[in-house]
Amino acid sequence: MSTLQAEALTEGKKEKAARFPIIDTDVHERMVSIEDLLPYIKEPFLSYMKHWTGWGELKYTHPIGGSRLDSLLPSGNVPGSDYGVLKEQLLDKYDIDYAILTGLFYPATMEAQFELAAELASAYNEWYVRNWLEKDDRFLGSIHVAPQMPETAVREIEKWGDHPKMVQVLLPIGTAPLGDPYYHKIYEAAQRKNLVIGMHQGNSVTTGFGQPRYYVEWHTILSQAFMGMAVNLILNGVFDKYPGTRVAMIEGGFTWVPSLMWRMDHNYKSLRSEVPWVKRLPSEYIKEHFRFSTQPIEDPNPQHMLRMVEMMESDELLMFSTDYPHWDFDSPTRSLPTTFSAELKRKIFYDNAKNFYRLPDSPKAAR
Amino acid sequence: MNRMVVCGSEEMAPGQKRAVQVGTRSVVLVRLGSGEYCALMNACPHQGAPLSDGELTGTTLPSTVGEYVYGKDDQVLRCPWHRWEFDVTSGQALFNDRRACVKRYEVTVEEGNVVIHY
């Protein structure tokens, strides 16, 4: 026993013998794991606990599980973490020509410790390029950055921007208004490297009244954040300043696009003087600079869905996506409405993304 | 083409506007800071509000992000309802939509009178 330890013990004895009785009002006992609670939890919440991921960024425990049940891995590892299974269930099964990887690890939406966020994004790039991107010719990549640190994000874009498989910079939507001039150098770098900006919701995204009480509410209404971001980017002048900027809105829906174009034009006509750097009608920026992924495509009267595309006044704004392996996956063979013509489907499945991401023809399409 | 004297050439000070009846139509007559006159149909193409009730003003010109450049002083007529802005020298809206345009009338000053041609 060292002298120090001995002294500490002696000290302890002294404290035990203190003359005052003591009430400690803050002592933390802990469970070994959440499983300790399972015997005490009743249905339907016991089923929720199969999907418990702790109090992370996502404020909800998924009520039905966040992934397709057939994507669950025997190892217990996270669905989507096994290349062989993904290849079989998605790439080979549906004969996918290109699959753009978007990950689901988004330090970009961390609201504190931005240096750590930048380090994590950088580490993720290193890891996934080696372990995923370069594993299959069909994979294309997104550069993960921490927009909270714009200069660092620019360096990350410069580091990976010339990688032949990188097609976009991923800026997940959290609570930050990414059209703000604070972030503009990121768009400059993306434009310089000829990369699309991919925007996918992050788990921390909120709605107009913050965090709604149920997951189903949140998942329904998170498209608000995409609308807000489109408005924010356009009216803060990103496209006037960097005309080469292209933004892919991923998983945020698209049936709101006609309404947003109308509403933004309507307001702009009255309030243009507040944002004089915006030189054209906002709807024109949407049509020229934005594309929208299809999943999760809603399932209304198929005629109505066709009309919705007509109201977008362009058949070039939609790009197909599955969202594999998530619970709301859209099948390449069953999700687009029957009213969509073969020509429209061809554009949604292939041409629009090929043109927007400026991809070479896939080997199959070139045949 | 018809012509009509609507007022004396010094009745209006620069920066003023007024509605004048020209035949069957109402026209908004504007005197620019330079002293020249412009005339537009007195109805906004949006929802028909009388532009003569609006504000004759300047506005922010196209600029770079975060920069405000004020100009076209007393050359912009702002509709009283939704505040669409029109350049009175062209009738064109300040936002970039060629369809948003107010009909312009030729105005001349002849022998001390302001004459609108219609």
Would you give an account of this structure?
- The complex is a heterodimer of chains A (about 375) and B (about 120).
- Chain A starts with a helix and ends with a helix.
- With about 375 residues, chain A is of the alpha/beta class.
- Chain A has one domain (about 80-360): Alpha-Beta Barrel (TIM Barrel), CATH 3.20.20.140.
- Chain A contains 14 helices and seven strands.
- Chain B has about 120 residues and is mainly beta.
- Chain B has one domain: 3-layer Sandwich (Rieske Iron-sulfur Protein), CATH 2.102.10.
- Chain B is about 0% helix and about 45% strand.
- Chain B has no helices and nine strands.
- Chain B has strands spanning about 5-10, 15-20, 25-30, 35-40, 55-60, 70-80, 85, 105-110, 115.
- Chain B is globular, with a radius of gyration of 14 Å.
- Chain B starts with a strand and ends with a strand.
- The interface of A and B includes residues 181, 184 and 240 of A.
Outline of the structure:
Chain B: Residues 4-116 form the Rieske domain. The complex is a heterodimer of chains A (367) and B (118). Chain A is an alpha/beta fold and 367 residues long.
Alpha-beta classification of chain B = mainly beta
- The number of E-state strands of chain A comes to 7
CATH superfamily of chain A: Metal-dependent hydrolases
Taking all Cα atoms into account, the compactness measure Rg of chain B is 14 Å
InterPro entries (chain A): ACMSD (IPR032465), Amidohydro-rel (IPR006680), Metal_Hydrolase (IPR032466)
GO molecular function (chain A): carboxy-lyase activity; hydrolase activity
Pfam families (chain A): Amidohydro_2
Protein name (chain A): Amidohydrolase
